[in-house]
Amino acid sequence: MKDCSPSARADFLASLSLKELEALASDWELWARPDQLPPQGDWTTWLVLGGRGAGKTRTGAEWIKALVHGRAPFAAKPYGRIALIGETLSDARDVMVEGVSGLLAIHSKADRPDWQPSRRRLTWPNGAVAQIFSAEDPESLRGPQFDAAWGDELAKWRHADATWDMLQFGLRLGEAPRQVVTTTPRPLPLLKRLMSDKRAVLSHATTRANVANLAPGFLDVIVDRYQGTRLGRQELEGELIEDRPDALWHREQLDLLRQSEPPDLQRIVVAIDPPATSTKGADACGIVAAGIDGQGVAYVLKDKSIAEMSPTQWASRAIALYYRLQADCVLAEVNQGGEMVSTILNEVDRDVPVKAVRATRGKWLRAEPVSALYEQGRVRHIGNLADLEDEMCDFGIDGLSSGKSPDRLDALVWALTHLCLGDKASPKVRSL
Length: 432
What we know:
- With 432 residues, this protein is an alpha/beta fold.
- The chain has two domains: 17-213, P-loop containing nucleotide triphosphate hydrolases (Rossmann fold); 251-421, 2-Layer Sandwich (Nucleotidyltransferase, domain 5).
- Helix content is 33%, strand content 19%.
- It has helices at residues 6-14, 18-25, 28-31, 56-68, 89-97, 160-170, 189-195, 218-226, 230-235, 251-256, 311-325, 339-348, 363-375, 386-392, 407-421, and strands spanning 45-50, 81-86, 114-116, 121-123, 129-134, 148-152, 178-183, 200-205, 258-259, 267-273, 286-292, 298-303, 329-333, 354-357, 379-382, 395-396, 399-400.
- An eight-stranded mixed β-sheet has the order 3-4-5-2-6-7-1-8. The protein has a seven-stranded mixed β-sheet with strand order 9-15-12-11-10-13-14, with helices on both faces.
- A hairpin with a 4-residue loop joins strand 3 (114-116) and strand 4.
- Helix 11 (311-325) packs across helix 12 (339-348) and helix 13 crosses helix 15 (407-421).
- The longest helix is centred in the last third of the chain and has 15 residues, at 311-325.
- It is elongated and about 80 Å long.
- The two termini are 50 Å apart.
- Residues 424-432 have low confidence and may be disordered.
């Protein structure tokens, strides 16, 4: 039908009976996105991570419905005893059962389960039973047994580990007990353990993926306000955002220092942390622009860092940013390439002033004073600098957890050191 003309689709739909139209409308495999269908394979836990409004509840409810009816490829035969666990009993009732995408809403009248609120359970016409539980009361899961379970918003569970453990002891019916978890991710130890479990599979969806089912304008308003922030990446993009305990920067701190536009700036610089080589798999070239206002507050304006580019390409990229921002100079670390770095920049455009900087201390020691500027509220971030902030919040005393070079961070440190802690050339006032 997707390849048919609108008139052909209309003719086809007009030819269907009411019963056939209901069957078509309830065919979840037809309407679901790929991330809303269970992955193939011999898994025990399906983790559905997504942003707010990404369709996670519908995914969980449709999976339970398919299990109850033994619908292939979801299940080889019907499942009969199911646990539904929410953050609280009211959440389980209002979202998982009675919600607009909950179990009652997605069933037709003919196969809709009987909901008994006082007994906290659903009973299907074929005898399958689902009971709701609260993560506030892990002990309520001690005793009952199930062959399937759906846990919603696990990252908000008050007693996450205890509730999960009790659920696992209860999943002991049938030939292949399974469970689905639908949640907006947070750096919860339990969630991180599940993500690394060999018996778990993962699906991911952003809020934007479900735009057809959201209120008009919702995404524009929310994205404009939260794009690039820690909260936005977690709640809209469905990303698991973590901070290292020993990192020099933390995401909540950076979010408080974010604004949409800079004021008039007295000086602007473009800092480059060049890679040692340009071969495949080499370090990225860090390219970060920053400026400073008349009150001594610095503004990180752009991160144009790039990987796997030739020296001429990254030099051209940095010089283009210099002209775009009407910067005062380009700062280039020369530890790796010596005079070659300045030579490459001059070959691309000899009119651009280049100031060579050389590292005499380790990366951590160079970064510490710049981190102190953030603590003092003397730095602001303009807009979305997600990749740069990822490095900042993953930079500990032993470097990045990946072992890679912190190229974006190095460029940032050179720019802010020059503007706030080093030589201050004569100012030029400009507006961006």
